[in-house]
Structures are given as structure tokens and as C-alpha cells.
Amino acid sequence: MERVSIYLTSMKVGGAQRIALNLCTGLVKKGFSVDLLLVEATGVLIEEVPEEVTIVDLDASRLATSTVSLCQYLRKETPDVLYSMMIEVNIAAIVAHQFAGVDTRLVISEHNTPTVSAERLKDQLVLHLATLVYPRADHIVTVSQGVRDDLLDIVDITDEKITVIHNPIDVERIREQAVETMEHEWFMDPSISVVMSAGRHAPQKGFDTLLHAFSRLEHSNARLVLLGEGNETESLRTLAMELGIKDQVDFPGFVDNPFKYMANADVFVLSSWYEGFGNVLIEAMATGCPVVSTDCPSGPNEILEGGKYGPLVRVKDDTALSHAIEDVLTNPMDESVLASRADDFSIDTIIKKYETVLLGTNSL
């Protein structure tokens, strides 16, 4: 039985943590022995980790200091594979792996388009360090072709050393939660067309563009539900007021089950400036909800296959986004087609590709 160790910060709710959980689930099902190495063994998602997975608390106050514990773990346990997620964690994994001096295969993964997401000076310094140490990994997984191309432009590695593997999505869990009772009055009124989106209220998500686009809709009976919260929440509320759509927009905050919202919405919109992949599009499609997305780097174009499964519009173009939403509200795509596309990203489908890369048997 091959032993795989997955290394990340914690199991607090987040995209990377959910993907790690799905990887644990899929690998255990495939017969792997899995250790989940956490800088701090905290977070509500710990409760969802399969019981077959061994949770290892590196008990470090910071990611940087966890490299000592990780190095000790690698020397003692010598797993077959060490898999890390996200740029700073990847750097820490490479450092610990080098000092441990073990034969463990090191596979790192990049979940964001590096040059696009490095907005702050700190991010740029981390990215520079990554370009220096990434070649020391045995293999690199990127979650989209766009991330792969960006990485190849800045890191001195060969094509063969990078494999694109889209994120595994737990479509079965999503569909189970999607049928839960919906109590929001807008979703229960058949005369109302509900547009929705979800995510951190941060500039990257482009929710200001979405509000402008929504204000242009000709549908007088349309409503917008914007799940999530963040530093931009109050400014988004203010913008809704300035645009005269305050009473047509609801901000429920973070909800335990966003999938029942998706299942009952008329269209889901991703309005981001950039993404590593865009899991939320697949989650919406898994419920049968039609989608619209910006053609941002990177991921949405690959998920929607160039517009086959939903319109793609230019980033920050609220006019084009409004037209796309209008088109989908008028002519929604068949739910079964969307659900079938979501199945292409199921845990069982994606884990087969991970199995090949983790074992190093051949390239995809």
C-alpha cells in the first residue's frame, strides 16, 4: 500500500482545504494510506476527514516553523509521496524535503495563476522564491492549463515536469445538500428570476462589476443574491444603493449550504478578475444551475469549454456581463447537460489522474 502525505496549513473552511478533503476521500477509496499533515490541526473540516486518514498535527504557530516538524516527520515516517498545496506551503515542503534527505517523491501543486495573483509586494517576493525552488520538486500539478502556462513562463522547468489536473469536486455531496428545503422568499416565488453569486467580498471577485451588470438587466422581476462576506461588503451595499437596486439585492453572508441556493437560482455568475480554477462554477452546474462567467485567468474557459456550457465575457465588462445574464435567463441550458459536465470533475474521475502522478508511473 502506497503511503501519501498531504501537507497544508489547517482544515479551516477554504477552497484548498475542501480540495484536500476530496483528495483524502478519493485516495483512501483507491487503497492508499493517507496522512494529513497540518501546520495546525484546527478547522471545522477536520470533522469531515475520513476516519481512515491519519491526521498529523505539526503543532507549529507559523508555516515557516513547521518545516522543522515536517523534516522530522519525513525522516521518521519516510512516506512514499509528499504532496503539498499552495505556493507558500510548497516552498516550505521543498525546504523540509531537501533537509530531510529522504527518497520520498515530492509533488507540489499550484492553485492560482502566479503572476496574476501576486498583487502585493510580499506576494511578489514569495513568487520570486518559488521560481528558485520549484525546480527541486519531483513533479508539479497545476489545476488549469492557464496556471500551467503561466508557471512555465517564469520557472525553469520542462513541460514534462508539469501535469494539469483539474480539482476534484464532491458532486455527490453537493447534490445531496442541494435538495434541502429552501426558505428564502425570492427563491420560492416563481415570478422572480434569481441571479446569484458567492465568494469572499474582495476586489478579485469582481462583485462591483456584477452589481453594475445586474442594474442594467431588463428583467424587472430579477433579484440578486450575493453570498459571502469580506472587506468589501459594506462598499458593495453602498454601491447597490447608489445604483438604485438596494431592494433587489440581498447579502445573506456565509451560509452552511450554498448548494440549495444554487439549485433554486436561475443563473449563477462568476465575475472574478482572476481564479486558479473556479470550483464554484462546477458546484453550480452539479446542481443543474445555468452559469455565466468572466473569461478570467485561469480555469473558467476550460470548465465551460470556451462557452459550450455557459457564456464567457471579458473581465470588468459589466455591459457584456449583463447581456450574458439576460441571455441565460431567457434561454437557460438544459440541467442534465450541465450536471453531466460537472461529473467530469467528480472525485472518482479526477483521482485516477492523481494516482498516476503521485506514483510517477507515466505522464498524462
Give a structural overview:
With 364 residues, the chain is of the alpha/beta class. The protein folds into two domains: 3-168 and 346-359, Rossmann fold, CATH 3.40.50.2000; 172-343, Rossmann fold (3-Layer(aba) Sandwich), CATH 3.40.50.2000. It contains 16 helices and 13 strands. The strands form two sheets. It has a seven-stranded parallel beta sheet, with helices on both faces. Strand 4 (81-85), helix 3 and strand 5 (105-110) form a beta-alpha-beta unit. Helix 1 crosses helix 16 (347-359) and helix 2 packs across helix 3 (87-100). It is globular and about 65 Å long. The model has no long low-confidence stretch (mean pLDDT 95).
Low-confidence stretches: none
Determine the number of helices (DSSP H or I, runs of at least 4 residues): 16
The number of domains is: 2
What is the overall pLDDT average? 95
Topology, element by element:
Blueprint: E1 3-8, H1 15-29, E2 33-38, E3 54-57, H2 66-77, E4 81-85, H3 87-100, E5 105-110, H4 114-117, H5 121-133, E6 139-142, H6 145-154, E7 162-164, H7 171-178, H8 185-188, E8 193-198, H9 207-215, E9 222-227, H10 233-242, E10 249-253, H11 258-264, E11 267-270, H12 279-286, E12 291-294, H13 300-303, E13 312-313, H14 318-330, H15 335-343, H16 347-359
Parallel strand pairs: 1-2, 1-4, 2-3, 4-5, 5-6, 6-7, 8-9, 8-11, 9-10, 11-12, 12-13
